[in-house]
Amino acid sequence: MIGVEVITVWRVWLSLLFVALILCFVPAQDPTGRELPRPAKKPADKTIEKKGGKPAGKKAGGKTVKPPAATRAPARAARQPAIPSKLIIIAPVGTLIEIDGRERGFAGVDGRLVVTGVSAGEHRLNAKAEGYEAWSGSLTMGASGTRYEVPMKRRPAMGKVMLTINELGAEVIIDETHTITPSGAQPNQLEGLSAGKHRLRARKAGFHEWRGSVTVIPGETVPLRIELKPILDPVMLPVTEGVFMRGKNSGDKDQRPEHQVFLSAFDISRSEITNRHYKYFVDATGHRPPEGIGYGWKANVYPAGQDDLPVVFVTWDDAVAFCKWLSAETGYKYRLPTEAEWEKAAREVGDNYSSVGSLWEWCSDWYDPDYYKARDRINPQGPPRGKKMKLMGFEGETKSLRGGGFGRGQLLLRITERSSYFPNKSRFDIGFRIVREIERPTGK
Questions:
Q1: How far apart are alpha carbons 194 and 292 in whole angstroms?
Q2: Residue 4 CB neighbours (<10 A)
Q3: Cα 248 to Cα 254: distance, rounded to the nearest angstrom
Q4: Cα–Cα dist 391/397, whole Å
Q5: CA atoms of 177 and 429, how far apart (whole Å)
Q6: Helix axis angle, 316-330 to 275-285, nearest 10°
Q7: CA distances from 55 to 60, 61, 67, 257 (A)
Q8: pTM higher than the cut 0.70
Q9: What is the DSSP string of 171-213?
Q10: Which tens digits make up the pLDDT trace of 314-341?
Q11: Cα separation of 411 and 346, whole Å?
C-alpha cells in the first residue's frame, strides 16, 4: 500500500510541475481573458565604476550624479547632406552655353540655364544665339554659387544688295571701311549689310569716280546699278605761246628752208589716243571700228590688256570725227595739230610724252613738199590743197604725217621729218595725237 501512495504523490508533483511550466509560457491575462501587459525591462546600469568599487555617477544614499565632463562620451555630430553649388546663367531664350569648351545646354523660356558641377574659380564661357552677336568671355564661379548675366548684343538686321556695274575691274568702297572688286559680267550679291543707308564709291583708272548710296531693307534684296563714266579728256600738256625755228636746212628737201614761226598757246595730248579712248567714241557713235589685216579688234572690242596702247588703223577722217565727238562731249574744242604745232610741242614738251610704240601721227595740214618756201610766219595752217601723190598703188591728195618710228630718246633726231598719206586710208603704223584749244566755248 505504501508503494501505491508513493506513486500517487509523484504523479501529483509531476502534474503541478507541468502546470507551472505551462504558466511560464502563457501570457498573463485579466479576469476577462485579455493578455496583461508585460513590465518594461529595467535598463542595465552602464555607469562606470570607480576604482573603489562604487559605480560612477552615484552617491551614498542612491542619488545619481553626472560624471565629470572629461569622462563623458563625446556627442556624435549630425550628418547633413552636401548642397551642390549652382551656376545660374541669364541669357536670351535659346542661347547655347559652352563652359570651358563643353556645351552645357540652352537658356530656357525664362532666359535662365542652371548648371551644376562647376568648380569654384575662373572659367571660359561662350554664348551663341540666333539674332545676337556671339559672345566670349570669362566668369568667376563662387564656392556657394554664382549668378551671371551674359552681356549679349543684338545683331543688326541684315539685308542684301544685288549690284551690277558697267566696268570690269572697278573697285567699290562701302562706308569707307571695306573694298570689293565686283564682276562686271553678272550681278554681284552683297550680303551681311546692316539695315539702313550705306555710302558707296566706285573708281577705276580712266573713269570719273562714282558716288552714291543704297538703303538696305531687312530680309529683302535691293538692286543697285553703278554706271562709271569715262574721263574723256586725255591728259594734256601745255605748250606756251612764242616763236621757234621750224624745219631744218640740212634735212630732206621738204624740210627746207628753216624759218621762224610764231604760235599761240595750246595744249597737246601727252600720248596718242588709246584704244580705250577710241572705244568710247565707237560705242557712243556707232562709228566703224579700226580695221586692218591681222589687227586685234573684233567688232568694237580690242584685245584685253591693250587699253593704253595707241589706236592704229584709223584714217585721217576717223581722227577728225573723233575730235568732233570729243569736243561735243566735253565742251572743249579738240582737233588735230598743225604741222607747226606738232613740231613746236615735240621740241618743248616732248620729253614728257608717254608715247608707246613707233607711229606716224596725223596732222591737220594738207601735204605739199614745197610748202615751207611760202614761209608762213604766224600760226601756219598748211597749203589750201595737197599735192597729188602716188603711194602704194594709190594716187591723190595727201595729209601730213609727223613723228615716224621714234622712241623717247630719238624724238629730237626726227623732229623735223615729214611724210603724208591718203586721208581715207589707214595703216598699222599710223595713229594720232590731239590738240585742245585754250579758250573754252561759251555755253558749255
A1: 53
A2: 8
A3: 9
A4: 10
A5: 47
A6: 80
A7: 10, 13, 10, 159
A8: no
A9: EEEETTTEEE---SSS-EEEEEEESEEEEEEEE-TTBPPEEEE
A10: 999 999 999 999 999 999 999 999 999 9
A11: 8
